């Protein structure tokens, strides 16, 4: 395992990458409504990131063809953008990354399209909250498994499935670095967190069973049972006293 510890200059670059990404996601949030298309959201994200002098992390990453991943309803992650209008009642998970002077940020949100059911709204809210449960009381010296176990416990206590095939990850000069950050695991297990580590923490939840499958495009991961899924992610910095969220 090769975990990189960032110095203050590197962290400052990641803060800027994180800020631009937050602004991108805020912009997209205002543009999610019935009739909108993920392809248009993708263009908006690309144009905004370029206008800030930054670069999209995902575009061409291992051949991925878009600036954002747009995963609708039962799609968990890595959804492809298209010209199909979003419908009232859909939910869309948008995942995006920004590179600033060689340093990456990575974050995801699930947004409602118009009015959605209480069931879907709860899934979105609890998934978001599971991220905050995961980082509660976390600081340098804690074990990585504390994050994983708290996310898992919170999601499962609400009856949701926790996707295991995909995990959070270290992040820095590469989009995906060591260590993996699973959304399930044992408290007090795993590596010790060190000041200067930067992690993308990203709970992925399902309304039904936690099993997932790969779509024909070999990228998009969907729920096996066809029920909805939500995703929430931020890039964080481990500090002496806690966690600094770089994408909020
Ligand atoms: Mg992401
Ligand atoms: Mg990520």
CATH superfamily grouping: Creatinase/methionine aminopeptidase superfamily
Number of DSSP helical runs: 4
Shape category: globular
In whole angstroms, the N-to-C terminal distance is: 28 Å
Number of domains: 1
Report on the biggest sheet.
Answer: 5 strands, antiparallel
Looking across the biggest beta sheet, what order are the strands in?
A: 8-7-9-14-15
CATH class type: Alpha Beta
Low-confidence stretches: none
CATH architecture: Alpha-Beta Complex
**Remind me, CATH topology?**
Creatine Amidinohydrolase
**Overall residue-averaged pLDDT value:** 98
Radius of gyration: 17 Å
- Number of strand segments: 15
- Judged by helices, strands and strand pairing, the structural class is alpha+beta
Q: Which molecules are bound in this entry?
A: magnesium ion
Helix content: 25-40%
H/E element order: HHEEEEEHHEEEEEEEEEE
Strand content: 25-35%
Give a description of the structure.
The chain is α+β, with helices and mostly antiparallel strands and 248 residues long. It contains four helices and 15 strands. It has helices spanning 8-30, 38-51, 118-135, 144-157, and strands at residues 55-56, 68-72, 75-77, 91-100, 103-112, 161-162, 168-170, 177-181, 198-201, 204-206, 212-214, 221-223, 229-231, 234-238, 243-245. It has a five-stranded antiparallel beta sheet. Strands 1, 2, 4 and 5 form a four-stranded antiparallel beta sheet that branches. Helix 1 (8-30) packs antiparallel against helix 2 (38-51) and helix 3 (118-135) packs antiparallel against helix 4 (144-157). The longest helix is centred in the N-terminal third of the chain and has 23 residues, at 8-30. The radius of gyration is 17 Å and the shape is globular. The protein starts with 7 loop residues before the first helix and ends with a strand. The protein binds magnesium ion (MG) (2 copies). One magnesium ion binds at residues 95, 106, 108, 202, 233. Residues 106, 169, 200, 202, 233 line the site of one magnesium ion.
């Amino acid at each position: 395992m090769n975990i990189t510890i960032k110095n203050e200059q590197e962290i400052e670059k990641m803060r800027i990458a994180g800020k631009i990404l937050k602004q991108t996601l805020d912009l997209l949030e205002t543009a999610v409504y019935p009739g909108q298309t993920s392809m248009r959201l993708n263009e908006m994200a690309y144009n905004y990131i370029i206008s800030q002098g930054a670069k999209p992390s995902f575009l061409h990453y291992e051949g991925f063809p878009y600036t954002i991943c747009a995963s609708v309803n039962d799609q968990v992650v890595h959804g492809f953008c298209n010209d199909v209008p979003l419908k009232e009642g859909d939910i869309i998970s948008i995942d995006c990354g920004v590179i600033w002077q060689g340093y990456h940020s990575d974050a995801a949100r699930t947004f409602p399209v118009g009015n959605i059911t209480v069931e879907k709204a709860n899934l979105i809210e609890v998934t978001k909250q599971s991220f905050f449960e995961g980082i509660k009381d976390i600081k340098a010296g804690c074990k990585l498994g504390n994050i994983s176990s708290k996310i898992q416990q919170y999601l499962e206590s609400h009856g949701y499935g926790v996707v295991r095939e995909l995990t959070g990850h270290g992040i820095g000069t590469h989009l995906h670095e060591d260590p993996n950050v699973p959304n399930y695991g044992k408290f007090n297990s795993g590596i010790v967190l060190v000041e200067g580590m930067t992690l993308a923490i990203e709970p992925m939840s399902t309304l039904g069973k936690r099993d997932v499958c790969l779509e024909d495009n070999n990228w998009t991961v969907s729920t096996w049972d066809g029920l909805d899924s939500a995703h929430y992610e931020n890039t964080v910095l481990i500090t002496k006293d806690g966690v600094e969220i770089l994408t909020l």
